[in-house]
Amino acid sequence: MEKKPILNRFLKYVSFDTQSDETSQSFPSTAKQLELGRYLTEELKSIGLSDVRLTDWGYVLATLPGNCPGSPTMALIAHMDTSPDVSGSDVKVRIHANYQGQSINLDTEGNWVLSAQDSPMLLDKIGKTLITSSGDTLLGADNKAGIAEIFSAVEYLLAHPEIARPTIRVVVTPDEEVGRGTEHITIEEINADFGYTVDGEKLGEIEDETFSADTVEVEITGVNVHPGYAKNKMINAIKLASELIERLPKGTLSPETTDKREGYIHPYTIQGGNEKAVIKYLIRDFTREGLKEKENWIEEQIRDLEQKHPKAHFSFKVIESYRNMKEVLDHHPQVVEKAIEAVRLAGITPMKHSIRGGTDGARLSFMGLPCPNIFTGGSNFHARTEWVTLEDMEKAVDVIVNLAQLWAKK
User: Which of 17, 142, 176, 285 is catalytic?
Assistant: First the structure.
């Protein structure tokens, strides 16, 4: 692949502010995602794909017809939204040609520094073209790099009809970052036999396993009276919430103290006042049993607090988020095996990896579309120090083209 088209494509996409909003009740959660959706729809039409449309819910769908009758249909999936954690507005892209491993001050004040010490993967990128933001915003490689790679691959396949390919369905989802990416799409609309999300990080990685995930919501109702006359009457919900959080282990079971296959309990929001307080926890583990153990532990702490504070009321609710897609993918080994072979054919050492997070593919797998995850070549997602290399993006395009050939039946 030539460098210029995919770079220009990526730079155009990150110019759109598509930050999603966890607190929004609408879908998509932000109307600005639709602006990119409309642009992508017109681009797919100009490339020459068929059945191109932007659905009422903000999904971009299109078809690249196959040239090998009898082949299965493959979906390629990416998401258009960026994380709510950091602004995605007015992204100022910095291109660092022939990167040599040096630390980079992303902003002029030196508040945001990208270094190999904090991001060791950079040591593997010597001589490559490194792309960052100015540190004021996210870059948006998660997941606009994936969109650029998918669009570049289908454009290349259409321009080279001599390359065997199955029918390919292109799917771009909104609101993946807030866990709602598959909320308003069906397997019938996707209309494929299997799929690949192009939403991973490190060059060569194929991810066939995610966390299983729940959210626990604890509501605490105390007794609020005038503080001047509160002795032996007031039950302060804020203090009870603080006491519950204080019971969490200090050296384990948190995002900041775990890695690899270790799960965690993560209190990520607390709201309220004297009378009522609400805590929300993210619960993560690679097994359903591990989720249940962590949820039971929280409930045990609540029951103990109820004994100590009988006038307070506690409610405990578990909200299912997604499950480990490996439970499904183990029944469809070919989908992962062909991804591994596609990486190898691109001259890269394939690496199977477990995601300490989730993707649209996790939910789609349980909806009936087996869907592992492919690398994009980026890193530091959700941070101002997010980066991607142009050469690794090009390799992701090669992998997608290889996948098409592997699934084509002549």
Answer: 176
